[in-house]
Amino acid sequence: MRQLDMKQALTKIMGNHDLTREEARSVMDIIMSGEATSSQIAGVATALRMKGETKDEITGFAEAMRSFSSQLNTNREGLLDTCGTGGSGIHKFNISTSSAIIAAAAGIRVAKHGNRAMSGKAGSADVLEALGVNINLTPEQGAACLDQAGICFMFAQLYHPSLKHAAAPRRELGVRTIFNILGPLANPAGADRQLVGLYDRSQTELVAGVLGELGLKRALVVGSYDGLDEISISEPTRVSELLDGQVRTYDLSPEEIGLKRYPLSDVIGGDASTNAAIIRSIFSGNERGAYREIVLANAAACIFVGGAASSLKEGVRVAAEIIDSGAAQRKLETLIQTTGELAHVSK
User: Fold this and answer.
1) pLDDT tens, position by position, 89-103
2) Domain of 189?
3) Neighbour count for residue 235 (Cβ, 10 Å)
């Protein structure tokens, strides 16, 4: 039974009262089922932003979003996702996508969740498409891709059709709301390990706590001091580490994991084709500068969270070996070939 309707929820939030986890879930149920008006959705999202979203509110919204999504049926044990919120306004290349492929080449099962660009020039869906990956697989085909290639991509637009009800209010508001946080929290495969990037580093501990409530076993939630939703090689990065239900927060510098510092301007990317060329250059071994270094930092985090390294510094070493051996390039080619073949298999 629904505990609150939209008007009651808005009244409570505007009175500076927090929603319970159950109340938040009921509100998101109403939104996702198409029963809320655009004004009501915008009002609740704005009021939550002004009050400040709580762990219970974000968890309840994420649980409802997961319940409405299409699911990729697979064993979630040891399954990794790497995804950021975007919204930094810094047009970097696709670091988390590159890192996901390297993690898969390290033997970690990867179910990458992502979308087209919202605030940048090229989202993960855009750059994978430019690389030759078929991003439009069904959940059944996605599960087969994961089994065959050790990695799959889940295009958010295909897995979360009910989010269309919030699209217009989000677009018209044009500011960060709880919906920006939810994308990385709604992996359709139920991944139990995750690297999450936030451009607002003040929320890393909050989001790590939400991931714990959602049942994840291990996670790193990162936000750099120069505004990236990634581990930076230009400034320190705030890291909130989830392990066995406990969250530990610390700052991480590039030097601590054996990497050099580069200006932020050195990791700027471009459109999908430009970023695809950057990724191919890294994987071919031709790139030895900032692009490679920032991918090593974030791939190391994936490898560490995935259990293939005992520390971030060791993860950097493993990631470098994977690139230099050609394994990352081979994993990309396997993903391209597998998605192409599966897309042509009749249902």
Assistant:
1) 777 899 999 999 999
2) 80-160+169-336
3) 15
Q: What single-letter amino acid sits at 61?
A: F
Q: Is 33 annotated as a binding residue?
A: no
CA 195, CA 208: separation in Å to the nearest integer?
Answer: 10
- Residues near 215 by beta carbon (within 8 Å), at least 6 away in sequence: 192
Q: Are residues 64 and 192 in the same domain?
A: no
Q: 113 with 39, same domain?
A: no
- What is the pTM (predicted TM-score) of this model? 0.94
97 annotated to bind ligand: yes
The answer to whether the annotation marks 9 as part of a ligand binding site is no
Has 2 been labeled as part of a binding site?
Answer: no
Whether residue 38 is found in the same domain as residue 142: no
| Residue 205 known to bind ligand | no
Cα–Cα distances (Å) from 134 to 86, 105, 112, 230, 340, in that order, read 23, 19, 13, 25, 6
Pairing of strands 246-252, 237-243: antiparallel
Q: Please write the tens of the pLDDT for every residue from 128-159.
A: 999 999 999 999 999 999 999 999 999 998 99
